[in-house]
Design a protein that fits this description.
4-stranded parallel sheet, 362 residues, single chain, alpha/beta
Amino acid sequence: MEIAIIDADLIGRKNHRFPNLACMKLSGWYKQQGAQVTLKQDYLDIDLYDKVFISKVFTDTPCPDEVLSFSNVEYGGTGFFYDKAPKLSDEVEHSFPDYHLYDDFVKSQLEKGVKKSALAYYTDYSIGFLTRGCFRKCAFCVNKNYDHVFSHSPLTEFVSAERKKICLLDDNFFGCKDWKNLLAELQGTGKPFQFKQGLDARLLTPEKCKILFSSKYDSAYIFAFDNIEDAASIIEKLKLIREYSPTIVPVFYCFCAFDRNDIWDDDFWLSDIRDLFLRIQILGSFGCLPYVMRYKRYVDNPYKTIYINAARWCNQFSFFKKMNFTEFCAKSSKSYAKAVENFLLKFPDFTDLFSTIHFRKE
């Protein structure tokens, strides 16, 4: 049997640098059945294969509609169905990923001059979920249909002895009642590991901090601060983080431009901008780095340049560490700097908020 697997994000997104776990599981399972599997990097000659599987993670990744209508094509993933994405069959879901699926892609990228470090997730990491689910039910999240966190896969199901690091995609690891045993198993591998999707800071306790911050962790610790209403809880946990690890520099995802009340009027946009900068200010005061993540509708408001500049400022950590927002805008493009200047002329009460945020290394 001839199987083609298409990672649509690999084709449709510029500089995409992360493998699709569903694609690797499909490849692993079909190779176990004796099939010939090809990672196809275009949409040509689809009819030549017995089966073609197309997967994508991001909703804005383009994929030709006519390809999806082929009788031999199956497609899935959050990029097509968001929170309604059908699950893989159990036999595929719990099969060992084919970590060699992307070998030819990696080789081609290296030949084009892409740095090996930029391809590390394809070559150095075992990737999987120890747990699935969440209980937060955030309206913007693909996991909003879950009501709890549960154990999903043992490490043996996806950790390769040949790979020196582990990347976990868990949605809310500390929400699982078995977190302590799972963390001990991770530590027992001796491999550096990371939770790429982030951890829920609101669930931190002294015990969790003590174990987590003593682990052989890979890259930055990532958390989230998505709602200013969580400020009191986040500040309490920031103090706890500093108590158990005074020197680390955590990264906090800061989601913005999403109206939980679905009104999207001028009052919302101004309030959302204010709330975003208050969150940034809190994080900076504890020596943490905010990473601004914008909901797609940020482009639909008259203040979109504020969101654009905020993301450019925060998400380039070297800028955030050295200057406040006003200083960054002054050094930015003339058109964006002028837009921010006009915004402050219209709403001068934002001036102090824009100009007094400083990163402080505790």
